[in-house]
């Protein structure tokens, strides 16, 4: 389940089913994570309850006063009460909200943001934290091999490193006669970059599988951070000692994870033991490349015979020989720095959450302005290998890059305290459950969280977030199904544009709520005046409905269709608990604009009677006849 076979054939062994599989465990984690109700749904419920309470209370009070004080007939009083309730009810509110959201969904689609859940548009306007992936979202997703590190550099050793890295890969190489390059690769960006580098050096071609057929594979795992294959050497590899023959195990992955499995390294003189000094030399080389923003991949080998096919994973990935390190660079998108600046200006925290090494994530974060430039005396790197555990995430500590191994050591209380007082953070080497924990911690602090993701492992966090944003180009079907919005261009800057439209929706909803409430008070005013002054009602119940449908809906739609105002991204996010219908809207609608409009309307009504020669006293005397449709003929 979850795999599409594009070509070829194979044999599979079922070792687990349903919830026992890795895919099933992710599905269970996603299913066990309830989808949060959107802030818009909460706000609409609040508006409906508030207006219902006002309408019913006013209607009941009117009925009681007219029966007990005015001594009116119960049926006549009930008519007045129903008229007041109808006057206060905003019949066009829900259609207006839906149409406003739909219009902005169209606008967002034109800006490469495809909305899957309508109410998520308004929730975007309240987003206060964005937890963003790095690769493909903040960066361009264009991996390229920039630098190689070898224990003892030589051309032969470089060839071994590139060839081994390309063979331990599921990317595919095809000849391209139409483009500027002779080869085209498809697959994971990291693997395609190494495959193209090997092809560019003339080390492999489209038929390399025939010369080095694969006999076994241990796929990459986000917890192991390694991938291993066993190949058969049908031709010798230049630069490898004669001891490497027959079956060859190749392991690539996170350098520090691979180094832990190595007992020797490969030099032009052959295989030499990996002393502590040599190991530290490799670690320093990894850190040096990572600090420049490179994604570093370690490659190691192991020679053997048919027994390699039957060894357990831990046994196969042991006693390895380190070949070298591959440094790949994925440049940041040029528009991301400005997008992050706009987020800060708008009061939105941006947190990078990635599976990359801490120094790599830190370097990219500094290049895009997410973190401050390094201090002159700063020697903290925030990773679990060179720091001292929990102290690295002290609120007073300058370290702002936290690796998953460190996060696993701190309590939820400590994590919430860290998130509350630190605004610029990068989380590296994060496992799926840790990303979910981070999202839940932010939400426990009352933040409205938007999360980006592209893989199956991101589905739980996407579902738990207030707004889940999946990648449309490189994202999986599972991620897109769990998300509320799909970014068609996988671009972080599109998120900021989507937030701007979300804030515009909130602003427009408040505008037409004010408009509708003002009109509703004016529609209820004739019935209030009828009870208070015993004069004929200026409107019937059916006329009120006609006014609502004819003059409320279309103008309010115009308000809902307005473009976002220029200053919206200079304001802080609207708090989650802040109601759309708050005291300021109520006072402006009912006590100022509503009273003003009602006064003008009733004055015009009385002026018409006055110009017809009917005074207030005569109007009061005629009221019972008008209500029973027995008015004199001349009226």
Protein architecture, described:
The N and C termini lie far apart (80 Å). The strands form three sheets. The chain has an eight-stranded mixed β-sheet with strand order 1-18-17-16-2-13-15-14, with helices on both faces. Strands 3, 6, 7, 8, 9, 10, 11 and 12 form an eight-stranded mixed β-sheet that branches. It has 22 helices and 18 strands. With 635 residues, the protein is of the alpha/beta class.
Write the layout of secondary structure elements.
Elements: H1 22-31, H2 39-68, H3 74-88, H4 93-110, E1 113-115, H5 120-124, E2 129-132, E3 144-149, H6 155-167, E4 172-175, E5 183-186, H7 189-200, H8 208-211, E6 214-218, E7 226-232, E8 247-253, H9 255-260, E9 262-267, E10 270-273, H10 276-290, E11 295-304, H11 313-316, E12 320-329, H12 336-345, E13 349-353, H13 358-367, E14 401-403, H14 404-407, H15 412-421, E15 425-428, H16 432-444, E16 449-453, H17 459-464, E17 467-471, H18 477-482, E18 485-487, H19 492-533, H20 541-560, H21 583-611, H22 616-627
Helix pairs in contact: 2-3, 3-19, 4-19, 4-20, 6-7, 15-16, 19-20, 19-21
**Major sheet:** 8 strands, mixed
The N- and C-terminal alpha carbons lie at a distance of 80 Å
Major sheet strand order: 1-18-17-16-2-13-15-14
**CA radius of gyration:** 34 Å
Query: What fraction, in percent, of the residue positions are helical?
Result: 40-55%
Strand residue content: 5-15%
State the low-pLDDT regions, or none: 376-398, 628-635
Helix count, DSSP H or I runs of 4 or more residues:
22
Query: By helix and strand content, what is the structural category?
Result: alpha/beta
Q: What's the average pLDDT?
A: 82
* Structural shape: elongated
Total beta strand runs = 18
């Amino acid at each position: 389940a979850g795999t599409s076979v594009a070509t070829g054939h194979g044999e599979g062994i079922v070792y687990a089913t349903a919830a026992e599989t890795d895919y099933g465990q992710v599905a269970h984690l996603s299913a066990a994570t309830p989808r949060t109700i959107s802030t818009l749904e909460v706000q609409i419920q609040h508006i409906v309850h508030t207006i219902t309470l006002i309408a019913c209370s006013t209607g009941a009070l009117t009925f009681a006063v007219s029966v007990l004080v005015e001594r009116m007939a119960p049926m006549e009083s009930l008519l007045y009460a129903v008229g007041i309730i109808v006057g206060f009810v905003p019949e066009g509110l829900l259609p207006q909200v839906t149409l406003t959201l739909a219009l902005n969904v169209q606008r967002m689609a034109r800006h490469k943001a495809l909305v899957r859940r309508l109410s998520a548009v308004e929730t975007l306007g309240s987003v206060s934290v964005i937890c963003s992936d790095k690769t493909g979202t903040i960066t361009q997703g264009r991996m390229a091999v920039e630098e190689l590190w070898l224990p003892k550099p030589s051309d032969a050793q470089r060839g071994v490193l590139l060839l081994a890295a390309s063979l331990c890969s599921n990317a595919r190489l095809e000849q391209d006669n139409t483009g500027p390059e002779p080869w085209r690769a498809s697959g994971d960006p990291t693997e395609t970059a190494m495959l193209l580098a090997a092809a560019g050096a003339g080390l492999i071609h489209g038929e390399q599988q025939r010369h080095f057929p694969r006999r076994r594979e241990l796929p990459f795992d986000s917890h192991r951070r390694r991938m291993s294959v066993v190949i058969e050497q049908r031709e010798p590899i230049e630069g490898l000692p004669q001891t490497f023959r027959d079956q060859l195990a190749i392991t690539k992955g996170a350098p520090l994870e691979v180094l832990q499995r190595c007992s020797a390294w490969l030099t032009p003189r052959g295989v030499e033991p990996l002393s502590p000094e040599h190991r530290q030399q490799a670690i320093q080389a990894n850190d040096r490349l990572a600090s420049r923003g490179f994604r570093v991949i370690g490659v190691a080998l192991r020679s053997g015979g048919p027994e390699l096919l039957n060894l357990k994973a831990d046994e196969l990935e042991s006693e390895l020989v380190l070949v070298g390190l591959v440094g790949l660079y994925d440049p940041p998108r040029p528009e991301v720095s400005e997008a992050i600046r706009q987020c800060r200006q708008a009061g939105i925290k941006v947190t990078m959450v990635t599976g990359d090494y801490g120094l790599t994530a830190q370097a990219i974060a500094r290049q895009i302005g997410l973190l401050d430039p390094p201090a002159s005396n700063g020697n903290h790197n925030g990773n679990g290998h060179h720091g001292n555990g929990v102290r690295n995430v002290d609120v007073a500590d300058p370290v702002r890059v936290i690796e998953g191994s460190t996060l696993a050591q701190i309590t939820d209380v400590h994590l919430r305290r860290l998130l509350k007082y630190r605004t610029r953070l990068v989380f590296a080497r994060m496992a799926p459950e840790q990303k979910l924990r981070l999202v839940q911690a932010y939400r426990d602090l009352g933040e409205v969280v938007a999360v980006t993701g592209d893989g199956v492992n991101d589905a739980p966090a996407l579902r738990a977030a207030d707004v889940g944003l999946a990648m449309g180009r490189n994202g999986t079907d599972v991620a897109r199904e769990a998300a509320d919005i799909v970014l068609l261009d996988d671009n972080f800057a599109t998120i900021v544009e989507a937030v701007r439209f979300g804030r515009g929706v909130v602003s427009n909803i408040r505008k037409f709520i004010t408009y509708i409430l003002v009109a509703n008070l004016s529609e209820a005013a004739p019935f209030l005046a009828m009870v208070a002054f015993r004069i004929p009602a200026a409107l019937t119940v059916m006329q009120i409905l006609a006014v609502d449908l004819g003059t409320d809906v279309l103008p309010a739609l115009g308000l809902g269709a307005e473009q976002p105002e220029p200053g919206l991204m200079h304001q802080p996010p609207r708090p989650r608990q802040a109601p759309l219908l708050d005291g300021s809207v109520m006072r402006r609608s009912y006590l100022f604009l509503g009273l003003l409009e009602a006064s003008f309307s009733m004055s015009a009504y009385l002026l018409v009677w006055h110009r017809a020669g009917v005074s207030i006293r005569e109007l009061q005397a005629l009221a019972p006849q008008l209500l029973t449709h027995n008015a004199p003929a001349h009226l």
